[in-house]
TrEMBL record:
GO terms for cellular component: nucleolus. Residues 1253-1278 have a biased composition (Low complexity). InterPro entries: ARM-type_fold, DNA_pol_V/MYBBP1A. Residues 732-782 have a biased composition (Acidic residues). It is found in: Nucleus. Residues 1191-1207, 1237-1249, 1280-1289 have a biased composition (Basic residues). Residues 710-788, 1187-1289 are annotated as: Disordered. This is Myb-binding protein 1A. Keywords: Coiled coil, Nucleus.
Length: 1289
């Protein structure tokens, strides 16, 4: 890098500087520019480079100049530059220790003297002093120069009086200095200087913190005697100082209202209380009886933050005391109240405090105390912390086990009185407070179950296999069993329930157990197990360290409970038939495990899971799953027999369905259960039986998805508002409710049930909404039916009300109904309207029920799509896959044409993905058509015919993709591809002419008809991209269709179709495969035909500016370019003269621009004929003055209203004008001619503009200046305005 010497200009008024400073090089000066930049990385690099430069140069004048620039920069006007100069000054002082700190401090005081600085620079000077002291402090040299310490402190003391600018920065800087200096320097130098601040320690939080820092750093100097002399007491925390401390704490709380942090002075005060052994006194009087007595707000938030920050500092006894006191109760009320929107929430901060404490603390007893006390903070029995509280993952294993034991004990014997339970004001005013205890027990048990399941579900929690099994056994036992007599073998029978379990909590237990079963199904191996550590491959999920499934252990536990009826009693005892099904399940699982020992297989494991899962669900719904269990058992037996004996009698096959068909029916029945675990197991089992699936089994799956069958089933048809039909599924209604309950339990948290304070308002809002809904329903009833009208007339006639009403209308009778008649009439009308209202409500309930059933059926179909997806993925090469094409297209067609909700869209999106991405685009497909050639050709023709009749182009795309898939299947794979198992659509095959079983002529005719339909109809669902894909994937068919495509270059029904025909022909001719198939005379003939069609197409182009025509011409020219290029390169015998002639005349038909796609393509084409695009000289156009710019007021000029106006000279007649001019000549000696100096004067300073009418009234030509019209001056001024912008440029 070249170094440039720059001379610094010096004014004569300033004192002359030394020559060395006056001639600094640019590299050295750039350091100071970079230090002032806002980017931190640039500043740090500049500081580092400056120090290195100064060390290398070792010049005294440069070092002195550096200190001058850095001290000046401390008061920089840009706030971002001050820290940079302060940092640089501190680093330079640290690097050059021979420079005295006192000298630098004196220079800072002199440069930024507050007594002599100008008023507008006063604030900058204050910051200059502050950042100067910070720089000296950062140099780490203060302890070596005590006098400098004293000077810095005194300077900071003077700055602390300017709080409106510096706030508390000077006091904080003094604290930093105290943390650095030794005790002897403090005692000898600073103690006397800081005596005023120390004596006023209770006035502000900063001064109190200064005292606390001094006490912590210099305990030998500030002994109790010294404190008594300074403050009047030997300790900080005592009964006399509590009111003062309370005022300081309130000030500190208000000071951090926006920052949402804990002031450091409060934490220091807490540490001092622990040191002085006065923590309990401080906590009770200053926090509980002081801060918490204030209104909810900053004072309370400070107390909560202090509670969280104090956790690592307290002993086990202090933790127990603090976490059971009033601060926790107030925190719980805050959490409940903060659930409303737009409320400040402190719970996330508390989570961080607790998480940090548990992560750093290694004492399991302290961890347990914190977890138990936070879990004991309850609102009407429900803890305020969420059941999925993730801080549990930081617990030690011993603490986890003890915490789980406490949860189980609390579940068995809930003692609300021993918990830290509270109620909000609204809950206390609730008259239903008598039911609070029972409801609280239910809410507490519900949270405990969710808490236990969440511990198992969280993989980050350190837990052993015994603990996992213990929790699962506990939940299972209390969900389905009860203790009859304690047993040593069953630990769950030893626990006694203080409050019996009701049906409501058992329902929660059942749902939670099956959710826990799903979590265990995905549970990885425990980290502490030796087998889990030794596994290097992909770790298995849902198994213990010995490889046994978790669900198998639970089934064994359930069997032990069933085998000991004297000790454990089932809540729903099995019938003999159900017990037999359970025993047969155990026998089948045992047989599968024996076979798995000989040779483990995925099929065996899947069937074990299915048997075990269905067996566990027998406890939940024994009647529904009994039949499924029997069918499953028979299927397994038949499958084993079929493997043992491959040949069976034909009679048996005709009488009974295949076992796989029954298995598919079982899986479909299980999918109706609201369980994700069952859904995953069904998917796994179906994956294992996919090779055995028959056409009948696949049809059973498709029948569930077929939308036509829903319309045809008259026995299960209901009519909804949109006149659509839907199949009923009565068994799934209750299941949906269970599923909703299960989801609600899984999503339990502090935001769900702890906010009971708002439940009353929510209920009131719901009631109000219900009333509004009823009113809306009454309004939406519509016209009254005839039966209601007849009944109304009958009631009125019976009471003779209509006659009275008619006579009253005539005014001819004063007869009125008596009281009895009126009561009778009111009673009859009330009964009639009540009946009508019940009918309206029944219609509404029926409508809601049908919508719910529709959602259930749709959800069931989404689950069934899992089986279809597995089959397509596992059996893509099976001929059975071909039977999925039409059903899936029907689903897509029906889904696209209907107005669907989000669930319907999800179903449609899933079906479309299976069809297009996993079926049509799969690399594996059926390559052996067999005797189904005719059927597939008919299917292809049917699909293409249907696609042309569709109205939606997006649906047509799926039909066209299906057609290409059928063509791919019919073509198959050549022998070489079959050996290599290459499935790349055959386009890169060795033999391009191989078409397999495809009837080329018939298929070509089908696609040519589709192409003609696309080119001959104004609105066609087909698109050019579809045929482009066809040409690319099947060059053999492309060759057959090329002639038809070439003819459409001219015969297309619209200009757009003609352009698309050019695109198709261009893509086809660019294909290497097509060029190989049409090599020789056929290729030459094709080029000739294309040339003729292009010539005829371009001849039709007339003079037009149409965008569509231009787009067509562009596509035509692109084809021309390729054609001319290929003919020239291959030297084909094709006559291009007609095409050249038409191209030359094209410029007269369409107006070309300088550049553009059309123009560039045209010149690229004619370039092959030797015509070069002419070069156009660039001429800058004359800029016309914008009238708006002329009217703009120019900056820096006076407005017209402020200008001094000249006296208007009256307009005279010619004779009078001559006399006036003559007199003027005699007086001033100036010429009277109108073209003399007067005119020049007017040119320099034009007159004020007159109104338009005045200008028009003036004579057009005047020989004298007095008669000059205003238009002349206006035009002159306008011309001047035109010139001035040019002069500016």
């Amino acid at each position: 890098m070249s170094v440039e010497m720059v001379e610094l200009s010096v004014k004569t008024a300033e004192p002359v500087r030394p020559a060395g400073v006056l001639q600094q090089n640019r590299v050295f000066l750039d350091f100071f520019w970079d230090i002032a930049k806002p980017e931190q990385e640039v500043r740090l690099k500049a500081v580092e480079d400056l120090i290195q430069y100064l060390k290398k140069s070792d010049q005294a004048d440069e070092l002195d100049y550096t200190f001058k620039r850095l001290v000046d920069g401390l008061a920089h006007t840009r706030e971002a530059a001050r820290p940079g100069f302060s940092l640089a000054l501190g680093q330079v002082l640290s690097a050059f220790e021979d420079v005295s700190l006192q000298t630098v401090l004196d220079r800072i005081k002199e440069k930024h003297n507050l007594q002599t600085v100008k008023k507008k620079l006063f604030r900058n000077a204050m910051f200059g002093n502050l950042f100067g002291v910070l720089a000296i402090h950062q140099s780490s040299r203060l302890p070596k120069e005590p006098q400098v310490v004293l000077g810095c402190v005194k300077l900071l003391q003077s700055l602390s009086q300017r709080k409106q600018h510096l706030k508390e920065l000077p006091t904080k800087t003094m604290m930093d200095i105290l943390n650095e200096i030794p005790e002897d320097v403090f005692e000898e130098v600073l103690l006397s200087a800081l005596q005023t601040e120390l004596e006023a320690a209770f006035s502000t939080p900063e001064q109190l913190q200064l005292l606390l820092v001094a006490l912590r750093r210099f305990p030998q100097t500030l002994k109790p005697k010294k404190l008594k002399k300074l403050l009047g007491c030997s300790t900080i925390i005592n009964a006399d100082n509590i009111p003062k401390l309370l005022d300081v704490l309130k000030m500190a709380a208000r000071s951090v209202k926006k920052e949402c942090v804990l002031p450091s002075v409060v934490l220091d005060l807490l540490k001092l209380s622990l040191k002085e052994d006065s923590f309990q006194h401080f906590w009770d009087n200053a926090i509980i009886n002081g801060m918490l007595k204030e209104a909810a707000g900053p004072a309370h938030y400070l107390s909560f933050r202090l509670l969280g920050s104090a956790l690592p500092l307290l002993s086990a006894e202090q933790l127990q005391e603090v976490l059971s006191g009033e601060v926790m109760v107030q925190y719980g009320e805050h959490v409940v109240a903060a659930q409303k929107p737009d409320r400040f929430k402190l719970a996330p901060e508390m989570d961080v405090f607790v998480s940090d404490f548990l992560q750093e603390c290694q004492d399991a007893d302290k961890q347990l105390i914190v977890m138990v006390r936070f879990s004991s903070l309850t609102n009407k029995g429900y803890p305020v912390v969420p059941s999925v509280w993730r801080v549990v993952q930081h617990l030690q294993p011993a603490a986890v086990e003890q915490y789980v034991a406490w949860l189980k004990k609390t579940f068995l014997q809930p003692q609300i009185d021993k918990l830290l339970d509270f109620s909000t004001r609204k809950q206390k005013d609730n008259p239903a407070a008598k039911e609070q205890k029972d409801d609280s027990v239910f809410r507490l048990r519900k949270w405990i179950i969710s808490r236990l399941c969440a511990i198992i579900d969280n993989h980050l929690v350190k837990k052993s296999e015994d603990l996992i099994m213990d929790v699962a056994r506990f939940v299972f036992f209390h969900a389905f069993f009860s203790t009859k007599k304690a047993s040593a073998d069953i630990s769950e029978t030893k626990g006694k329930l203080s409050v019996p379990l009701d049906d409501k909590i058992r329902a929660v237990l059942v749902n939670s157990f099956f959710g826990l079963l799903l979590s265990m199904h995905h549970l990885p191996l425990a980290e502490d197990s030796p087998e889990g550590v030794a596994v290097s491959q992909k770790r298995a999920l849902g198994v213990t360290a010995d490889g046994t499934m978790w669900i198998y252990h639970l089934v064994q536990y359930a069997q032990s409970l069933l085998s000991q009826p004297k000790h454990a009693q089932s809540s729903q005892p099995f019938s003999p038939e159900q017990s037999q099904a359970w025993d047969s399940m155990l026998e089948s699982v045992a047989n599968l495990k024996k076979k798995a020992k000989k040779g483990p297989s995925a099929e065996s494991s899947a069937f074990q899971q299915l048997f075990l899962l269905v067996g566990m669900h027998l406890f939940k719904a024994p009647e529904e799953l009994l039949v499924i269990m029997k069918d499953l058992q028979s299927c397994m037996d038949k499958a084993q027999e079929k493997k043992a004996k491959k040949k069976k009698e034909a009679v048996e096959q005709e009488e009974e369905p295949e076992w796989v068909e029954v298995m598919v029916d079982i899986l479909l029945s299980l999918l109706s259960q609201p369980s994700r675990h069952i859904r995953q197991v069904c998917r796994t089992v179906f994956s294992s039986i996919c090779p055995n699936v028959t056409a009948a089994a696949l049809t059973a799956i498709l029948d569930v998805l077929d939308p036509e069958r829903d319309d045809e089933d008259d026995a299960a048809v209901v009519v909804t508002d949109d006149n659509k039909t839907q199949k009923k599924n009565t068994n799934e209604e209750d299941d949906e409710e269970d599923e909703e309950d299960e989801d609600m339990e899984k999503s339990d948290g502090s935001d769900d049930d702890s906010g009971e304070g708002e439940d009353d308002e929510a209920m009131e809002d719901d009631d109000a909404e219900d009333d509004e809904d009823e009113e809306d329903d009454e309004e939406e009833v519509g016209p009254v039916d005839q039966n209601f009208r007849i009944k109304m007339m009958k009631i009125l006639q019976n009471q003779n009300a209509m006659t009275i009403a008619g006579t009253e209308g005539d005014g001819s009778s004063d007869e009125e109904m008596d009281d009895d008649a009126m009561l009778q009439l009111d009673k009859g009308l009330a009964e009639l309207f009540s009946e009508q209202k019940k009918k309206a409500q029944a219609k509404k309930d029926e409508k809601t029920k049908m919508q719910k059933e529709k959602a259930l059926v749709r959800d069931f179909k989404i689950k069934v799509l899992d089986l279809l997806e597995v089959f397509v993925a596992r059996q893509a090469g099976s001929p059975l896959v071909l039977g999925l094409v039409e059903p899936l297209l029907t689903i897509i067609d029906r889904g696209m044409s209907s107005d669907s909700d989000q669930q319907e869209q999800d179903f449609l999106r899933r079906a479309a993905d299976i069809f297009r991405n996993q079926l049509c685009r799969s690399k594996v497909y059926c390559k052996t058509v067999g005797d189904r050639e005719g059927e597939l050709h008919d299917l292809l023709e049917k699909l293409m015919t249907k696609s042309q009749k569709l109205s939606d182009s997006s649906v047509c795309l799926y039909y066209f993709s299906a057609s290409l898939y059928v063509v791919k299947v019919l073509r198959g794979a050549p022998a070489a591809e079959a050996k290599e198992d290459a499935t790349a659509d055959g386009a890169a095959g060795s033999d391009l002419k191989f078409m397999g079983s495809l009837d080329v002529d018939r298929v070509s005719k089908i696609f040519i008809e589709a192409l003609n339909s696309f080119m001959g109809r104004r609105k066609s669902p087909l698109s050019a991209q579809m045929f482009t894909d066809l040409f690319t994937r099947f060059p053999g068919l492309c060759v057959k269709m090329l002639d038809a495509a070439v003819q459409h270059i001219n015969s297309g029904v619209r200009v757009h179709q003609q352009g698309q025909a050019c695109v198709l022909v261009l893509r086809a001719m660019q294909s290497r495969e097509v060029q190989q198939l049409l090599s020789g005379a056929a290729w030459t003939e094709l080029c000739g035909q294309v040339s003729g069609q292009l010539t005829a197409s371009l001849e039709k182009v007339g003079e037009t500016e149409s965008k569509v025509v231009k787009e067509k011409v562009v596509k035509t020219l692109e084809l021309c370019q390729f054609l001319v290029k290929i003919v020239k390169q291959q030297k084909l015998s094709v006559d291009l003269e007609p095409l050249q002639t038409v191209l030359q005349s094209l410029t007269s038909a369409i107006a070309f621009k300088k550049t553009g796609k059309l123009e560039d393509t045209y010149w690229a084409v004619v370039k092959h004929f030797g015509v070069i695009k002419p070069k156009v000289e660039k001429i800058k156009p004359e800029k016309k003055a914008d009238p708006k710019e002329l009217l703009k007021k120019k900056k820096g000029f006076l407005p017209e209203s402020k200008k001094r106006r000249k006296r208007d000279i009256p307009i005279l007649e010619p004779a009078a004008a001559a006399a006036a001019a003559e007199q003027a000549t005699l007086r001033g000696g100036k010429p009277a001619a109108g073209t003399g100096h007067w005119k020049k004067k007017h040119d320099k300073k034009p007159k004020q503009k007159r109104p338009a009418d005045g200008a028009a009234a003036a004579p057009a030509a005047s020989p004298s200046p007095a008669k000059k019209s205003k238009t002349t001056t206006t035009s002159e001024s306008n011309s001047a305005k035109k010139k001035k912008p040019k002069q500016k440029k």
